[in-house]
Amino acid sequence: MVQSRFPTRITALSNVVVLVGGNVELTFTAQNAALSVSGAYVVRAELATSATVCAEVRPYAIVVSNDVYDFGGAEFDALARDVDAGLLVVPSTIQLG
């Protein structure tokens, strides 16, 4: 058996951001920000399926509006830890300019 020289597991890096819920303006803003900052694409998930979607795509970031976070903040904190993603809570009202 060949032992790895790496002491921890190696995971594939994901270039995906998951947006949980969000209106049209927030979706548009998240897509533009993710694309321009890191070339990532946004996968939109409903609140009920957000854990499943995050487990499947293993995003590097999860974006939720403060309204959604107020509904289940502790669960989103735990989800972000579980999938090793950053959690970004943004204002519910995004105005396009």
List the helices and strands and how they pair.
Layout: E1 16-20, H1 24-38, E2 41-45, H2 50-57, E3 61-65, H3 66-82, E4 86-90
Parallel strand pairs: 1-2, 1-3, 3-4
Short précis:
The protein is 41% helix and 21% strand. The chain has 97 residues and is α/β, with parallel strands linked by helices.
Report on the structure:
The chain has 97 residues and is α/β, with parallel strands linked by helices. It contains 3 helices and 4 strands; from the N terminus they run βαβαβαβ. It has a 4-stranded parallel sheet, with helices on both faces.
Taking the sheet with the most strands, its summary is: 4 strands, parallel
Compute the CA-based radius of gyration. Answer: 15 Å
**Main β-sheet, spatial strand arrangement:** 2-1-3-4
Approximate shape = globular
Q: Helical element count?
A: 3
Q: How would you describe the oligomerization state of the chains in this entry? A: single chain
Strand pairing plus helix content: what structural class?
alpha/beta
DSSP strand count:
4
Unreliable runs, pLDDT <50, ≥5 residues? none
Share of β-strand residues: 15-25%
Q: Indicate the mean pLDDT.
A: 86
Distance between the termini: 59 Å
